[in-house]
Design goal:
Elements (H helix, E strand, L loop, with lengths): L2 E8 L5 E8 L7 H16 L5 E7 L2 E4 L15 E8 L5 E7 L23 H11 E2 L8 E9 L4
Antiparallel strand pairs: 1-2, 1-3, 2-7, 3-4, 5-6, 5-8
Helix pairs in contact: 1-2
């Protein structure tokens, strides 16, 4: 089965929340390329959030990125990007959540909706990085396609 990549965020209240996705296995042959792709995914994900990326984890690594708090009280783990994607080979649907969504990004939300415009930067960069790294939980080799990214909040 697929290996995992976790990216943890810290919100204004010092609460932690994690985005978790499946990735291809990392081997001696693929390690450099995979680490480059994962770093690009982390950078692209940070570009669409306002929390502080505090830690990331891959199957062979557990790195504390930062213990700092975000600069704004708007960074709340309950504000999330809900990413819907599907596997190319079997068309199964999957999802993940990214905490501390940044709604201040100019033009990211489609007017009158909670959905992100996937063609606008930095969301387009996130989609590119996500599709390069993430694999469906039931396959190490199948590619994925991002279907939508939606702003969601915590249910009360």
């Amino acid at each position: 089965m697929s290996h995992k990549y976790d990216l943890q965020f810290r919100d204004w209240s010092d609460e932690l929340s994690t985005m978790e996705v499946h990735i291809t296995p990392i081997t001696v042959v693929t390690i450099v390329a995979e680490l480059v792709l994962i770093a690009a995914l982390r950078t692209a994900t940070e570009a669409i959030t306002i929390g502080v990326a505090s830690r990331d984890k891959i199957i062979m690594d557990d790195t504390i990125i930062s213990a700092a708090r975000p600069a704004t009280p708007l960074a709340q783990r309950e504000n999330k990007w809900f990413v819907r994607y599907h596997g190319v080979d079997n068309n199964k649907n999957w999802s993940c959540e990214i905490p501390t969504a940044d709604l201040s990004l100019a033009g990211v939300l489609i007017p009158g909706s909670d959905f992100a415009d996937l063609t606008v930067s930095p969301m387009s960069g996130f989609v590119t990085a996500f599709e390069a790294v993430v694999r469906p939980p039931d396959s190490d080799t199948s590619l994925v396609v991002v279907d939508s990214v939606q702003f969601v909040g915590r249910n009360l």
